[in-house]
Amino acid sequence: MAQDNFWSAFVLLLLILDPFGNLPFFIAVMRKLPSKRRLPVALREIGIAYAVLLTFMFGGHGFLKLMNLSQPSIEVAGGVILLLVAIKMIFSTTSEIFGGEGGREPLIFPLAVPLLAGPSALATVLLLASRQPGEIWTWVGALSSAVAVTGGLLLMSETLLKWLGDSVMNAAEKLMGLILTAIAVNMLLSGIRSYFGL
Fold first, then answer.
1. What is the Cα–Cα distance from 138 to 152, expressed in whole angstroms?
2. For residue range 55-87, what is the model confidence (pLDDT) as tens digits?
3. What stretch of H or E contains 80?
4. CB-side exposure of 18: number of CA atoms within 13 Å?
5. How does it sit in the membrane (predicted)?
6. Segment holding 164, helix H or strand E
7. Which residues in 81-116 are b (16+ Cβ under 10 Å) and which e?
8. How many domains does the chain have?
C-alpha cells in the first residue's frame, strides 16, 4: 500500500512540477547568466523550491487547523488549481506566464517560486500531508524523488532541447496536461463527495 501511495504521489508531483513545460523558460533565464554561475544558481533555486515544498508538507496540518479549513475544501481548491494548470499545459505553447528579469541573477523568484514551488505544487503537498498524515515519510520520499528528477532534467535542459526539439517537448507537455486534467477532476469529485457525505 505504501509503495502504491509513493508511486501515485511521485507521478502526481512530477506532473505538477512539469519539467518539460518549464524547460524553455528555465533555459531563457539561465542564458542571461555568466556560464560559471549557471550550475550554482540552478542548484540553489532547486534547493530553495524543495525546502519551500517540504515546509508546506510538514506544516500543512497545522496550517489547516490555524485557518479552520476542512479537508474537502482543500481537495476542491487543489483540484481547481490543478485543472487550471492542466489547461495551461494543454493550450499554451511554452511556460510564458512569468516575466523575465534581464541581466539580474534570480534569487527565489521566478525559478524557485513560482516556477517549481508554485500554487499547484504547494496545494498538492499540503493536501497529501493533511489527507494521510501517517504516510508523511512516503510523501517526503515521493517529493524528494520528483524534485530530483525535475532538477536533473532542468540541469540537462539545453542538451534535452537540442536532442528532442521544440515539437517533441511541446507534445510531452500536452500529454502531461491531459493526465493532470484527469487527476484534477478526480480530486474535485472526491472533495465534493466528502463534503456531501456521498
1. 21
2. 999 987 787 778 887 778 878 887 888 788 788
3. helix 71-91
4. 33
5. Multi-pass membrane protein
6. helix 157-196
7. bbbebbebbeeeeebeebeeeeeeebeeebbbbbbb
8. 1
